[in-house]
Design goal:
This protein is of the alpha/beta class. It has one domain: Spore Coat Polysaccharide Biosynthesis Protein SpsA, Chain A (Alpha-Beta Complex). The chain contains seven helices and twelve strands. Strands 1, 4, 5, 6, 7, 10, 11 and 12 form an eight-stranded mixed beta sheet that branches. A two-stranded antiparallel ribbon has the order 2-3. A two-stranded antiparallel sheet has the order 8-9. Strand 4, helix 2 and strand 5 form a beta-alpha-beta unit.
């Protein structure tokens, strides 16, 4: 591996959890936390979902690069499987990443909420805006990332990118032994499909993870349970989540189109 491809300092690689340099006093900065400790069983057998390749590169690397593509993001914290932190450190070290961005790897917890909290706990002082991004959304455009950050810096305590729904949605009564009766048809104009990165004022996100333990669907839902407002900015079609094999096929097609348009 060439020196220019090395993005983690050698002394950081000796510890189970790497340490980021302190922020400049008084500087408000943005960090991104990427939980990547899940297995992703719906994607089929094989490596953890975040380590599956997309265009020959692990999805996690695409997600890290997507966060680091924003010039506002100066730190990316990757939350690795508890027994795979060393592997993830090596993976980051083997790929070209922006030199202006610092990177940490920390071991994850029992579930996604525990893993996100581990990433938050690893943040040094000086990072007042925190993004939480799914490693399984490897193709989110930088304009979406920047829009979330801008909304937080403009005063929102919690921000989610989202898209209007194309399909009619039915609320049903779940049943395991037969057809499910429809209970209602929500007004589609009021519904949004939420994506990541979700952005937060750091103190609010910390408080949410310290106090909310039930009915957690995403980090923004935790802030809602605090009684605080969550606002929406426009999402993007290419920020979809790679969950099933067909999603991976679509992601490969999107990436191939991008590479063709970029001339490589």
């Amino acid at each position: 591996m060439s020196p220019e491809d090395t993005n983690l300092n050698a002394d950081l690689m000796s510890d189970e959890t790497t340490q980021a340099p302190p922020s400049a006093p008084g500087a408000a900065r943005t960090a991104a936390v990427i939980p990547a400790a899940g297995r992703g069983v719906r994607l089929g057998p094989g490596a953890p979902k975040a380590l599956r390749t997309l265009g020959g590169t692990p999805m996690l690397i695409h997600a890290v690069r997507a966060m680091a593509a924003s010039r506002a993001v100066s730190l990316v914290v990757v939350v690795a499987p508890r027994d795979g932190a060393a592997e993830v450190k090596t993976l980051l070290d083997a790929h070209t990443l922006p030199e202006r961005t610092d990177f940490l790897v920390v071991p994850g917890g029992e579930n996604r909420q525990d893993s996100v909290k581990a990433g938050i706990d690893a943040l040094p002082p000086g990072y007042d805006t925190v993004l939480v991004h799914d490693a399984a959304r490897p193709l989110v455009p930088v304009d979406t990332v920047d829009a979330v950050i801008e909304a937080v810096r403009d005063g929102a305590v919690a921000v989610v990118p989202a898209l209007p729904l194309a399909d009619t949605v039915k609320e049903v009564e779940p049943r395991a032994d037969g057809p499910e009766p429809v209970l209602s048809t929500p007004a589609r104009a009021r519904l949004r499909a939420v994506q990541t990165p979700q952005g937060f004022e750091r103190a609010t996100l910390v408080r949410a993870h310290e106090t909310v333990t039930e009915n957690v669907t995403d980090d923004a839902s935790m802030v809602e349970q605090l009684g605080l407002p969550v606002v929406v900015v426009p999402g993007h079609e290419e920020a979809f989540k790679v969950t099933r094999p067909l999603d991976l096929v679509l992601a490969e097609a999107v990436l191939a189109r991008r590479r063709k348009n970029d001339g490589f």
